[in-house]
């Protein structure tokens, strides 16, 4: 390995924090065990004992929803296109009224029957194996590229430390896999405290110190404005009129999809009670402020005159350029640890799905609670290994494209998972038809557009561009309604709480 | 009360309303500080609805 480019002070700080969370990860198996501990049970490994209160849930969901990849990719997009990249802000605001209305009901449904996954809830309500399978499969497939993306986030900061080769990434991932195996959801929940505090420190320092060095926010925005004026095209400090619809539909569609993912739902199911979730809908937006500030790093890069080869290097290059080595190392550690938390929760969410909705119904219906926990632990290793192989051997673009498609796909589970909580009208067959049309239609549109997140319609000479996932969801719901009219109404009543 | 939860959707999805640079606030163009302002506002709205639910004994 070539050691001449290594930033030693940054690397030591990085290694210190990485070692700290590794120790915490292994110790976490005994954390918050409490008197209600069920021992070898999937509720313990996969949901942390279903005992997380407001604070732990806040750190866990915050740490797992606002991922490391976000910290890299959102400023990169804002750097590249300007205002359009800010759809992340309305997205992560609108998600909370949605969480507030839907998730306490989902929690009740899951808690009452001991459900661990979204597909469990669907099975519990509709008693339809095909619909359960559809929801579980979508969850697993959408999560895999998401884990791979966290690895990309980690790769970017490892590169910024001056390390080369794939060994550091491999080492980080093996450590992650081992403590997730031993401690389950408790490991990321405990590490999330460290990660989130570190990220808050980094961002607060960055948004105070960087503009001070660069001449204030006015100067930051005006240097970005000048850069976009040179760049031209659909870039700028405000949106072009053609971007209004894509901006709004991306925000809304992403907000609807966000808590359909296994990793975000795992945080919901692990909550102690419904009010824990409601209080978190009030307090989680604090992370959205943070995300908005992180997005502004993309503009600060212009003011700082940062030059990068790929947009993803904007944030590391900015930190390396403006901060002393030790603080850059601290920031990179925050981002890398920020990748570990979601990667762990995602692999746990996917393992829970595999165990409860593939293994239990099709391989071993009589499986014990202990057996479930055992299967899930092994699957979590396989899932992480799969993501690693993905990143090491396939082009990065593949992971990005799949992640984008994954967003379209996971949104198609919304009717199956959510509608039954509010209305008893829909039957399983109709929802399954809707899901299938949404998945196929959404994928087809996305492929026809060359894997773009938005699709353009031309109606009466006017062009309308919308988020593909939302179009597919519209198709999905329309088909479900029509199919339900054909098949006849569901015989099940709506869930009552 | 629950209808209050629709306000952020109206405020943020009607994009032409806030797609402007002026007026600026602390150097932030309107487009940016307006969206930031919706974060605490949304929190406040959700809290009001939550408090109302607690009073009514929502489970």
Throw out a few tags for this protein.
heterodimer; A: 497 residues; Sodium/glucose cotransporter; two-stranded antiparallel sheet; B: 59 residues; mainly alpha; 2 helices
Secondary-structure map with pairings?
The complex is a heterodimer of chains A (497) and B (59).
Chain A (H helix, E strand, L loop, with lengths): L7 H20 L14 H6 L6 H12 L2 H14 L6 H26 L4 H9 L2 H32 L6 H17 L2 H29 L1 H16 L12 H15 L3 H8 L4 H10 L1 H19 L10 H9 L2 H38 L6 H25 L2 H16 L2 H9 L5 H21 L5 E6 L2 E6 H20 L10
Antiparallel strand pairs in A: 1-2
Chain B lengths: L6 H7 L16 H27 L3
Helix pairs in contact in B: 1-2
Write up this protein.
The complex is a heterodimer of chains A (497) and B (59). In chain A, α5 (88-113) packs parallel to α11, α7 (129-160) packs antiparallel against α16 and α14 (285-303) crosses α15. The model of chain A has no long low-confidence stretch (mean pLDDT 87). Chain A has a single domain (8-398), classed as Sodium/glucose cotransporter (Up-down Bundle), CATH 1.20.1730. Chain A has helices spanning 8-27, 42-47, 54-65, 68-81, 88-113, 118-126, 129-160, 167-183, 186-214, 216-231, 244-258, 262-269, 274-283, 285-303, 314-322, 325-362, 369-393, 396-411, 414-422, 428-448, 468-487, and strands spanning 454-459, 462-467. Chain A is 75% helix and 2% strand. Chain A starts with 7 loop residues before the first helix and ends in a 10-residue tail after the last helix. Chain A is built from 21 helices and two strands. In chain A, a hairpin with a 2-residue loop joins β1 and β2 (462-467). Chain A has 497 residues and is mostly helical. Chain A has a two-stranded antiparallel ribbon. Chain B is built from two helices and no strands. The model of chain B has no long low-confidence stretch (mean pLDDT 92). Chain B has one domain. Chain B is elongated. By secondary structure, chain B is mostly helical. Chain B has helices at 7-13, 30-56. Chain B is 58% helix and 0% strand. Chains A and B meet through α5, α10, α11, α13 and α14 of A and α1 and α2 of B.
């Amino acid at each position: 390995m070539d050691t001449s480019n290594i930033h030693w002070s940054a690397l030591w700080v990085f290694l210190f924090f990485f070692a700290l969370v590794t120790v915490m990860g292994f110790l976490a198996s005994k954390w918050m065990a409490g008197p209600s501990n069920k021992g070898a049970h999937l509720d313990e490994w996969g949901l942390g004992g279903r005992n997380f209160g407001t604070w732990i849930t806040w750190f866990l969901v915050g740490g797992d929803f606002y991922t490391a990849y976000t910290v890299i990719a959102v400023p990169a997009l804002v750097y590249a296109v300007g205002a359009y990249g800010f759809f992340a802000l309305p997205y992560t605001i609108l998600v909370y009224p949605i969480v507030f209305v839907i998730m306490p009901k989902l929690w009740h449904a899951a808690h009452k029957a001991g459900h661990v996954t979204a597909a469990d809830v669907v099975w519990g309500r509709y008693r339809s194996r095909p619909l359960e399978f559809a929801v579980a499969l979508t969850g697993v497939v959408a999560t895999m590229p998401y884990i791979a993306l966290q690895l990309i986030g980690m790769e970017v900061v490892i590169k910024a430390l001056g390390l080369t080769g794939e060994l550091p990434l491999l080492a980080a991932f093996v450590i992650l896999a081992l403590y997730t195996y031993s401690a389950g959801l408790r490991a990321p929940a405990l590490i999330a405290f460290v990660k989130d505090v570190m990220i808050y420190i980094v961002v607060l320092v960055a948004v105070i110190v960087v503009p001070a060095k660069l001449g204030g926010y006015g100067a930051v925005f005006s240097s970005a404005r000048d850069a976009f004026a040179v760049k031209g095209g659909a870039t700028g400090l405000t949106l072009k009129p053609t971007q209004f619809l894509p901006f709004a539909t991306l925000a809304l569609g992403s907000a609807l999809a966000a808590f359909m993912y296994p990793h975000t739902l795992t945080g919901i199911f692990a909550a102690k009670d419904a009010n824990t979730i409601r209080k978190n809908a009030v307090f989680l937006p604090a992370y959205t402020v943070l995300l908005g500030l992180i997005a502004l790093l993309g503009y600060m890069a212009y003011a700082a005159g940062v030059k990068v080869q790929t947009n993803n290097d904007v944030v590391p290059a900015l930190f390396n350029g403006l901060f002393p080595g030790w603080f850059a190392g601290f920031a990179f550690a925050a981002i890398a640890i920020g990748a570990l938390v979601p990667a762990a929760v995602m692999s746990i969410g996917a393992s829970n799905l595999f165990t409860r909705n593939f293994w239990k119904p099709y391989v071993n219906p009589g499986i014990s609670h202990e057996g479930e926990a055992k299967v899930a632990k092994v699957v979590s290793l396989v899932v992480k290994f799969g993501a690693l192989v993905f990143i090491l051997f396939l082009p990065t673009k593949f992971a990005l494209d799949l992640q984008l498609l994954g967003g379209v796909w996971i949104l198609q589970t919304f009717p199956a998972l959510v509608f039954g909580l509010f209305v008893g009208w829909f039957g399983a067959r109709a929802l399954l038809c809707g899901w299938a049309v949404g998945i196929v239609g959404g994928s087809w549109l996305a492929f026809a557009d060359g894997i773009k997140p938005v699709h353009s319609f031309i109606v009466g000479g006017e062009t309308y561009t919308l988020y593909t996932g939302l179009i597919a969801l519209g198709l999905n719901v329309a088909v479900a309604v029509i199919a339900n009219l054909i098949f006849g109404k569901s015989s099940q009543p709506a869930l009552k709480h | 009360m629950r209808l209050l939860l629709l306000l952020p959707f109206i405020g943020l999805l009607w994009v032409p309303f806030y797609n402007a640079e002026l007026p600026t606030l602390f150097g932030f163009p309107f487009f940016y500080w307006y969206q930031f302002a919706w974060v605490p506002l949304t929190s406040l709205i959700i809290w009001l609805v939550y408090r109302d639910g607690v009073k009514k004994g929502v489970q």
